[in-house]
Fold:
Amino acid sequence: MSRCVKVVKQMIEDDAFDKESLVQILQSFSDDVALIPILLLKDQKVLRTRPNEDDFFGYVKQLTYPPVEYARTDRASIVGKPMFYASAFTKNANVTYAYPRIVSALETITLLRSKGASGVKCMTQSVWNINEPIHLFAFPFSDKYKRACAEVGMLKSDWEELLLEHYSKASVEFFTYIGDLMAEPNTSCLYDVTATCVDYILTNFNFEGVLYPSVPVEGEGLNICLKSNAVDQKVSFAGAATEVIFRNGNQSKIEVIAHANMISDDAFEWIITEEGKSIMLAAGLLDSKISSNTIVVRSKELMDS
Structure:
């Protein structure tokens, strides 16, 4: 095991993150950074999830990356730097059932990930168009993903056959170790390590985001994390739905209760679905006398503006 790997491993074991030491390690590799370049093509779609609190959302800006003051350290982003997390469509999703809406929900909603949990939670899922190619990178893919999707297998094969030989042994060892960390749930200061590595690469190399397999579904789904300026320039909002999650132990059900209807370039109202009407009736939130009509709802913030 190299000294660089030992230093980072010790940070995580001791829960003692040292950003300066990690950045010095990254700088020591100069341009010898063992990564897999990936192109997110024009016309692809990605899906993003946001939990609802006590109201519907009313604006596109509420569904994209967060404001600076709410940007926190996560797997691929550091505090104070807004990033756009989303799930990509994989080619075998119809077979594996690892649909982006399921992967994204598992990544975002604690209720779905908690073993044996029960409860009800609303979320809003939005679809986004890629209008221009976006340059991504991935760390060498870990063998820890038990159900890696076909795309991971293909990229891993390309890495081993075409790219691996172009990097030093030390670089391959270190960035493969970071790839292994990307495959683990957050413990200790793990997110500080992975997020700092991603931020360093995005700051110093010509990439606009990172791609990594989803940990909750053991690699069956793919996630992306994009820089905010790449989203502003190359990504556009395509639509959204508000959904309700019903969880009872190991059984979960997700129902779409409303679809977004644009009323301006940045604002939308919600058209309640038939299933949404039934759920609202059962909860006492809707008068049965009007349940047969088209029901349109606007967020409180939009109504007050």
